[in-house]
Design brief:
The chain is of the alpha/beta class. Helix content is about 30%, strand content about 30%. It folds into three domains: about 15-120 and about 260-330, FAD/NAD(P)-binding domain, CATH 3.50.50; about 125-255, 3-Layer(bba) Sandwich (FAD/NAD(P)-binding domain), CATH 3.50.50.60; about 335-383, no CATH class. It has helices spanning about 20-35, 70-75, 90-100, 135-140, 140-150, 165-180, 205-215, 300-320, 355-375, and strands spanning about 15, 40, 45-50, 65-70, 80, 100-105, 105-110, 110-115, 120, 130, 155-160, 185-190, 220, 225-230, 235-240, 245-250, 250-255, 260, 265, 270-275, 275-285, 290, 335-340, 345-350, 355. Strands 5-2-1-8-21-20 form a six-stranded mixed beta sheet, with helices on both faces. The protein has a five-stranded parallel beta sheet with strand order 10-17-11-12-13. The protein has a three-stranded antiparallel beta sheet with strand order 14-15-16, with no helix packed on it. The structure holds flavin-adenine dinucleotide. Flavin-adenine dinucleotide binds near residues 17, 21, 22, 44 and 133.
């Protein structure tokens, strides 16, 4: 990024709502350039969750992918308020005028506000033996699986994963590996509402995944929409014929993806646009943002990190700490999907450059390590 420093260390007050990938990437960028800025992070959780590793909780404790905000607050010198802020477009407009956020009895003033509240699981129905991203994110999957394996019944059990996106696929391979290691009889089904697996990815990626699923004896059911659960059966509707069917299910994972509660439009500096007006003091980044001009708006950690960094640099420019910086122009530079403990598939550089096996697995580990380093204060992101 092309930047020239004008007033290093300048004082201003910043509030960040949401301490995920975008919020922390912005915070770390800002802290480096503005050591005297007063930064408050508001997030209802006690820990930052490295959600791109969530599938690893099939065999690892959740603590492996949690980083306490208290630790990050000491490392990057900010105040963490453990609170969920409820807001809508009208409140955002009020914030732009008042520059004050109310948390219970406390009023916190700001010069700049960054909203990075991410997205929410698409469907959250709490039913017995059905687990969604919220529950897995709170408990990890290992305790759920341990209980499932320990239950006394001897008949072959069925696990259904609803949603064959990257998350569903990653969970399927981790589960297949753990259940094989435990020598358990099980039936593992991956159920998808559309007609193709990973339709938005290059066809070579879906072919590789289908081959590996077959080898691991994971059955794939396509064109089936999940309609709920009754007793020990899950209910489906065929997306073409409308035919209804039922399938035995002892354990159901509902991994239908996420979408933002409120999607905020922004200019290429990350400033929120409401009613065609740019709000100069309110920025957004990550899954809850859509930048109208350039750059990738995909809901990926890579875009969230880059939008966070771009928004941070533009806040620094508004605060007269940087003289200028480039608008957000990031394009995806790759995507890798883990297929168990030593296999992965994806593309790097361009969508024709497909990598598989140990090479892809190692590349994915490097990307995760890069993020771990960022949280430790070492920024290795060049692009
Ligand atoms: C299981 C899973 C695996 C994934 N794997 C990959 C991958 O391998 N590669 C990839 O590129 N992308 C992956 N993604 C997508 C990626 O994780 C998201 O795009 C990324 O997390 C978005 O970052 P964010 O900062 O916008 O939101 P998040 O990381 O979701 O953070 C949002 C934060 O805001 C907080 N928050 C929410 N509401 C409020 C509120 N009202 N008040 C205060 N705080 C609030 C939340 O507690 C959370 O800490 C994956 C997603 C999931 C769910």
């Amino acid at each position: 990024m092309n930047v020239v420093t004008r007033n290093k260390g300048g004082y201003f007050k910043l509030i960040i709502i949401g301490g995920g990938y975008a919020g922390l990437s912005a915070l770390i960028t800002l802290r480096k350039q503005a050591p005297d800025a007063e930064i408050t992070l508001i997030d209802p959780r006690a820990d930052h969750l490295i959600i791109t590793r969530l599938h690893e909780t099939v065999h690892c404790p959740l603590n492996n992918i949690r980083v306490p905000y208290s630790l990050l607050a000491k490392r990057f010198n900010f105040i963490h308020k453990q609170h969920a802020i409820q807001f809508d477009e009208n409140l955002i407009k009020e914030w732009e005028l008042s520059k004050v956020i109310q948390i219970d009895e406390e009023s916190i003033s700001f010069d700049y506000l960054l909203i990075t509240t991410g997205s929410l699981p698409i469907q959250s129905i709490i039913e017995p033996d059905v687990y969604d991203l919220n529950i897995i994110g709170q408990q990890g999957f290992a305790p759920i699986l341990e209980q499932f394996i320990a239950s006394a019944e001897t008949h072959e059990k069925t696990i259904n994963i609803i949603g064959a996106g990257p998350t569903g696929i990653q969970f399927a391979f981790e589960l297949a590996h753990v259940l094989l290691t435990c020598h358990r009889d099980y039936r593992l089904n991956l159920i998808e509402g559309s007609d193709t697996l990973m339709g938005s990815f290059p066809v070579a990626i879906s072919h590789y995944i289908e081959k590996r699923l077959f080898e691991k004896q994971i059955s794939v059911l396509k064109s089936q929409f999940y309609k709920g659960k009754q007793d020990h059966k899950i209910l489906f509707e065929n997306s073409h014929s409308g035919d209804k069917s039922r399938l035995a299910s002892d354990l159901t994972l509902l991994l239908l993806g996420k979408k933002p509660k409120l999607l905020l439009h922004a200019n290429s500096s990350g400033q929120v646009i409401l009613d065609h007006k740019v709000l100069r003091h309110i920025f957004t980044a990550g899954d809850c943002s859509y930048y109208d001009d350039f750059g990738s708006n995909l809901m990926t950690s890579q875009s969230a990190l880059r939008k966070g960094k771009a928004a941070a640099n533009n806040i620094l420019r508004e605060a007269c700490i940087l003289r200028f910086c480039l608008p957000y122009m990031h394009q995806e530079i790759g995507y890798l999907i883990s297929l168990g403990p030593s296999d992965a598939v994806g593309w790097i550089g361009n969508k024709k450059a497909i990598i598989t096996g140990l090479t892809a697995f190692t590349a994915k580990e490097v990307i995760e390590a890069q993020y771990d380093l960022l949280l430790k204060g070492i920024n290795t992101y060049i692009l």
